[in-house]
Write a structure and sequence with these properties.
Blueprint (H helix, E strand, L loop, with lengths): L29 E6 L8 E5 L10 E6 L2 E8 L17 E2 L7 H14 L3 H9 L11 E6 L9 H13 L4 H8 L3 H9 L3 E6 L19 H15 L4 E7 L5 H14 L3 E5 L7 H11 L4 E3 L5 H12 L5 E4 L11 E7 L16 H12 L2 E6 L4 H8 L4 E5 L10 E6 L13 H12 L3 E5 L8 E4 L16 E3 L4 E3 L6 E3 L13 E4 L3 H11 L5 E4 L7 H12 L5 E4 L12 E6 L13 H13 L10 E6 L5 H8 L2 H14 L6 E10 L2 H14 L7 E13 L2 E11 L4 H10 L8 E6 L6
Parallel strand pairs: 8-13, 8-14, 9-11, 9-12, 10-11, 12-13, 15-25, 16-23, 16-24, 22-23, 24-25
Antiparallel strand pairs: 1-2, 1-4, 3-4, 3-5, 6-7, 17-21, 18-19, 19-20, 26-28, 26-29, 27-28
Bound molecules: adenosine-5'-diphosphate (ADP) and zinc ion (ZN).
Adenosine-5'-diphosphate binds next to helix 7.
């Protein structure tokens, strides 16, 4: 079963474990509720055998049908009315650190808010089944504090070494104390050392002595003091740390991390997955002298197990991770930092649809700890919370050390269009040539992987479309493939049109980064180019190598997608060309303008971060669009105010609430019927608007036909409760899936 089984549909169909008639348990001394990592409406009741002691949070094995399933003893009283004979017993307690109370509260909270089965939310916190494997450990020793009867100088040295090193192997202790193994074994027999199993995994770094941070400017120091004070105080606080790229936000929040560490508490730093690069992690290593633990989707099970256990046992003091890091069972989490808080990657759309930034605030509040949201271009949601006084606000107005913000200009493609069949305006080409002549670097940004977004036959007009999705196949010329960007479908780029059989008649339409790279090779043949996109850099090591080449100036022109937009610092990169600044506005959804503003501000921030001033050229067909004017004028405040005004007027988020229901299935008619039924049964209290059903823009996705309903409500309405009741009251076709998305970010 995978995370996609989260269909809210299953919520209203509780199934109880089948009681077995021959299950003669007799009278059990206790009963507990056990939450299983399955799409069930809630925990199930089990009996506890007399020889077993379990507490909420303990991992246990329980029978379910004919299987044994691992679950967690949950809080709350089991149903006392159920006859003991019908209760099946807990089979065993699993040797693993318990799930802390605050993690359990968090799981319940997320499940309620996202209208998801709590077991599936808990599954995100269980994370890796190997956590429960017996540790393949190494034999080690730990000092017991008992003084041995005969305290020779050699024994004395061993005990000192044990105190200094903590739990250590025989070899390590022998070496540190300059003694033979026999001395150590003797201390074991005397009871001064006890044998323990050391996990085979690498230990976590110790943050006991932190190197001092850099000398902060007065503005930075003031911001850092506010954040550090929150990290030292007991209790919840949410604070927005806002400042342009390069203003020192990272240095400033590192002071808050230092303050939390000084209290011996753990810290979680969330980053959008794509920003979790070696370069960013190196920043933390530099500041703290040791590398943080990381948590992301590319980890091996063994590494996941190590970090999960390290978080649970308090050994992993700093974890830098992607959104799912929120579900780690921290023993004593004292601070959460959400960097690039505006980033869309914080929203998970598959499975449990949750927004990690918002849930980080919830986690902080449940744990009574501070959370710092960091951005150069905060989301309107966060700004609304600042405005309403729910969040604090710290501002860093300037770039560090006098580095100036880049100069941004628009290139009106109607006035200076690229030559036929090309994508770079002569103005941009010229700026690139000048930059190259100065020995500096350019970045061409286009958020579109591959060679061309559409391929068609010049002879018959045939277009290559994905058979499973409403989407064109994207040509990837390096791989000689036509690829669907929504599902795994691809085919080798054919020589002839499959419809009319004409050879060599396929035409690429529109640009992708591979095609822009081809153009750069034509106009600047002497330039060394590098194409940077997720599909061309398999894995973090390849990405790190690419970024290292850019930093080492082995590359003159970088052509990249948003993977280069984040977190990098290339001192000689002084020109950024945005190939299609209008791209993000095309979809026209609620946040199109806001997102374009955020992304292009971030890309622009790559230019001129060191002593060389930077320049940004935006290619656009609509230089008068408010977002283009704001970028050119460097006037974000006015743009954001206009956006806020427009949303406030019609009560769109963050001034109102949205929830989406995506109804999908392999049978178009049945999916449509379910969507229509939902529209009929929809509750419509005052002020609540039900929009749809309508075929989703991605009407076919991975072979499923999709329909969308949208609920719009005032902020005072709890959409979670409304949707839960709605689904409970609606008959559901088992062949149709209903996905619930509270606070949707994507409208596809
Ligand atoms: P942001 O996170 O706002 O983009 P950073 O914290 O990455 O900014 O800072 C930008 C650059 O300036 C980094 O190389 C950082 O090390 C440097 N920097 C910022 N503040 C200081 C400071 N007070 N002293 C020395 N270097 C600093
Ligand atoms: Zn597809």
């Amino acid at each position: 079963m995978n995370a996609d089984d989260t269909a809210g549909a299953e919520l209203s169909q509780p199934t109880q474990p089948a009681p077995e008639p021959d299950d003669l348990l007799g009278r059990l001394p206790a009963r507990v509720r056990v939450l299983l990592p399955l799409p069930l409406p809630g925990p199930y009741d089990y009996g506890v055998p007399p020889d077993l002691a379990v507490q909420p949070g303990d991992f246990v094995e329980v029978p379910l049908g004919r299987r044994l399933v691992r679950g967690v003893v949950w809080d709350g009283a089991a149903d006392a009315s159920l006859s003991a004979a019908r209760l099946r017993p807990v089979a065993a307690r699993v040797a693993a650190p318990p799930l802390p109370a605050v993690t359990r509260r968090f799981i319940d909270w997320v499940a309620t808010y996202t209208v998801s089965p709590p077991g599936l939310v808990m599954r995100m916190a269980m994370s890796v089944s190997s956590v429960f494997d017996p540790a393949r450990g190494r034999a080690a020793w730990r000092a017991t504090g008992t003084v041995p009867p005969r305290l020779t100088p050699a024994r004395q040295r061993v005990l000192e070494a044990a105190a200094r090193l903590g739990t250590s192997t025989t070899a390590d202790l022998a070496e540190a104390a300059g003694v033979g193994a026999a001395v150590i074994r003797g201390l074991g027999e005397a009871g001064a050392l006890e044998a323990v199993l050391l996990p085979a995994d690498a230990p976590f770094p110790d943050y006991a002595s932190l190197p001092p941070g850099p000398a902060l400017s007065p503005g930075q120091a003031e911001a850092a003091a506010t954040l550090a004070a929150a990290a030292r105080a007991d209790g919840y606080a949410a604070i927005l740390l806002e400042g342009v790229t390069g203003s020192g936000k990272t240095e400033v929040y590192c002071e808050a991390i230092a303050a939390a560490l000084a209290r011996g508490r753990q810290v979680l730093v969330l980053l959008p997955e794509i920003a979790l690069t070696t370069a960013v992690l190196a920043r933390f290593s530099q500041r703290f002298g040791v590398a943080p633990a990381t948590w992301h989707s590319e980890m091996t099970p063994r590494e996941r197990r190590r970090v999960w256990l390290g978080a649970a046992e308090g050994r992993a003091q700093v974890v830098v991770g992607a959104r799912s890091g929120l579900f780690l069972p921290f023993r004593d989490l004292g601070l959460i930092v959400v960097d690039e808080e505006h980033d869309g990657a914080y929203k998970q759309d598959d499975g449990i649809a949750y927004h990690a930034r918002d849930m980080a605030v919830v986690r902080a509040s449940l744990g009574q700890v501070p959370v710092v949201l960091v951005s150069a271009t905060p989301s309107l949601e966060t700004l609304a919370n600042v405005e309403a006084g729910r969040y604090g606000h710290v501002h860093l107005p300037e770039r560090h050390a006098g580095a100036t913000l880049p100069q941004i200009a628009a290139i009106d493609l109607r006035l200076s269009p690229p030559p036929r069949g090309r994508w770079l305006s002569p103005l941009l080409a010229q700026a690139m040539a000048e930059t190259l002549a100065r020995g500096e670097q350019s970045l061409l940004f286009l958020n579109r992987r591959g060679y061309a977004p559409l391929t068609l036959c010049r002879t018959c007009g045939h277009r290559f479309e994905c058979p499973n999705c409403s989407a064109w196949l994207v040509e990837h010329r390096y791989q000689r493939r036509l690829v669907c960007h929504h599902c795994a479908h691809w085919l080798p780029t054919p020589e002839a049109c499959p419809a009319c059989s004409t050879a060599d008649s396929l035409a690429a339409c529109g640009p992708g980064i591979e095609r822009v790279a081809e153009e750069v090779a034509e106009i600047l043949p002497q330039a060394r180019t590098l194409v940077v996109a997720s599909d061309l850099l398999p894995g973090p090591a390849a990405a790190a190598a690419a970024f290292a080449r850019i930093a080492a100036r082995e590359v003159d022109v970088v052509i990249g997608t948003q993977i280069v937009a984040k977190g990098h610092h290339f001192p000689m990169l002084t020109l950024v060309g945005v190939v299609d600044a209008d791209l993000g506005l095309a979809g026209g959804d609620l946040r199109a303008g806001e997102r374009t503003w955020q992304l292009l501000s971030q890309v622009s921030g790559r230019a001129g971060r060191a002593e060389h001033p930077g320049r940004v050229l935006l290619q656009t067909h609509d230089p008068d669009a408010p977002v283009m004017r704001a970028l050119v004028a460097g006037n974000g405040a006015a743009f954001i105010e206009a956006e806020q005004e427009a949303r406030r007027e019609d009560a769109w988020p963050p001034y109102g609430r949205l929830a989406a229901l995506i109804v999908s299935g392999p049978d178009e008619g049945r999916a449509a019927a379910q969507a229509r039924l939902l529209a009929r049964t929809a509750p419509r209290p005052d002020g609540v608007l039900i929009l749809g059903p309508a075929p989703a823009p991605l009407a076919l996705l991975r072979g499923a036909y999709r329909f969308r309903l949208l609920v719009k409500a005032p902020r005072s309405v709890s959409l979670s409760a409304l949707v839960r009741g709605w689904l409970a009251d609606t008959r559901q076709d088992p062949a149709v899936r209903i996905q619930i998305d509270i606070d949707p970010q994507s409208f596809l």
